[in-house]
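Reopening this ticket.

The earlier resolution said the output was attached, but the attachment link was broken on my side. Pasting everything inline this time so it's all in one place.
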Amino acid sequence: MKTISQIAAFAPSQSATAEYHILLSVTDPSLPYAAQLEEILHAYIQSTKGKMVHFRRFFLSDAANQAPSLTEALRSLPSVPTSVVQQAPLDGTRIAMWVYCTSGMDCPGGVPTHGGYSHHWTGSLVSPGKDSYEQMGGIFRALEGELGKVGLSVASDTVRTWIFVRDVDANYGGVVVGRREYFNTIGLTPSTHFIASTGIEGRNPDFRNIVEMDAYSVGGLEDGQKRYLYALDHLSPTADYGVTFERGTCIQYGDRSHIFISGTASIDSKGQVLYPGDVSSQTGRLLENVEALLREADAGLEDIAMAIVYLREAADYSIVRKVIEGTCPSLHALYVLGPVCRPAWLVEMECLALTPSGNPSFRAF
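Inline output:
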């Protein structure tokens, strides 16, 4: 076997819809990129047979060089929302993949639909602009335009974003301001709510794109179906240090809950970085923070279906993996090179958890 397939299958009893989060990686780092790409796509085809693919993300070690052959290879496969980002897998390989798919859904007009909900994924959104500030605002306006075509909005219906920033240490400030100003125009403020998000180093294949974004939006949610997670005994409100995202978001359906945990690092309830320079202790604290957020949604680390761990330095990979596997030995995770938005943070983790404890007053997923 030349690939590792980490598959989290979730199908609550008496539910018509099953979900699958699939993480794919290659076992032999010495293979050339073309061979690794072939192996990943073969595993992708095999693992998604009989399922509806909603979204796929490719993690590349050299996006500008590798993306053209990836694009060409994907022409022979059914088109689905796709993200391509340069975040090198830390196991030494050149490509890895996250795939989200379901069974038991309809797809009218190309939009996965079931139970009165529609699920809209968008990958690698970019926008022209002279800097990260202009590009960030343009990307959100582009998402607003796409959602508007199907009667949805960013403010009401977007659940999760992933923002990838080239040279994050230099360009993240423009992203922060561009997002905050856009949110102000649509009524998202500290007194209303924001959107769960990860803002991290990531390079688009086109050097002109300083920022790219993936997004997930859900149509058909009722009032009270979406709630936000804070864990204020562990973490500060993000607005306290000028950024505008939610730490976590829980969506309750009639038969399950989806819990989206934003990129989470070693931070305390006052917004301070804990354990500067100590990647092992930072990893322990981020796990504690993630667990606290999950607890607010009546979930635990064991409910995580997929996680992505971002490291500032590849040299810390073995240390971080040992700490995480010591606490979560069965965690489905990819480890990639992705410096966090503050240089003092050496490691960050995001995750998506699934639990069968829904709310019967809402329609099933």
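Reporter confirms the inline version is readable. The mean pLDDT is 96. The CA atoms of residues 230 and 247 lie 6 Å apart.
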